[in-house]
Amino acid sequence: MSTGFIYLASQSPRRAQLLGQFGVRHELLLAGADEDAESLEAVLPGESPTAYVQRVTGLKLDAAVARRQRLGLADAPVLCADTTVALGRTILGKPEDARDAERMLALLSGATHRVLTAVALQHGRRRHAALSVSRVRFAAMTRKQIARYAASGEPLGKAGAYAIQGAAAAYIEHISGSYSGIMGLPMFETAQLLRRAGFII
């Protein structure tokens, strides 16, 4: 294994946990208070979920690479990822509050949706990117079940208003694709990118 390290440009503890499974040393490279990270996630008119998640990941990686250079940090590969939930062409981002979470969960109830996670790695001037697409089917949920889960606080900060590794698992009938991708960092695709950067996975 390479003795180097990478920067992880993500606030998600789930991504850090998944990355740690590779045994690759990493340091967080987070946006500063002066950066408007939320604006990067704005959806463009008519944008497809695939185009959206890939574009946002690229923008976040651009910002992270510029941040590393601005701070004068040691040179090392920078990894970034973004996850979105899509019901058809409708993008379900992070809920604004519990009521918004209830709205999203009502849409997902009894339906199959896609979870798209784009991951990108910048190594010097080289950039490698990959996309993981999974399908998740929710069982039909009652209004009471939806309200209880939304009130738990778990949906906040999660694309599509749920966390597959949390209490929402009780309502997930079937998944097809990458479980780790649904969590936020597809392990297979990420390993491929790290190998290209010289890490032995």
From TrEMBL:
One of its GO terms (molecular function) is nucleoside triphosphate diphosphatase activity. GO terms for biological process: nucleotide metabolic process. The keyword Cytoplasm applies. It holds the Pfam family Maf. It is found in: Cytoplasm. Its EC number is 3.6.1.9. Keywords: Cytoplasm, Hydrolase, Nucleotide metabolism. It catalyses: dTTP + H2O = dTMP + diphosphate + H(+); UTP + H2O = UMP + diphosphate + H(+). Belongs to the Maf family. YhdE subfamily. Nucleoside triphosphate pyrophosphatase that hydrolyzes dTTP and UTP. May have a dual role in cell division arrest and in preventing the incorporation of modified nucleotides into cellular nucleic acids. NCBIfam families: maf. This is dTTP/UTP pyrophosphatase. It comes from Variovorax paradoxus.
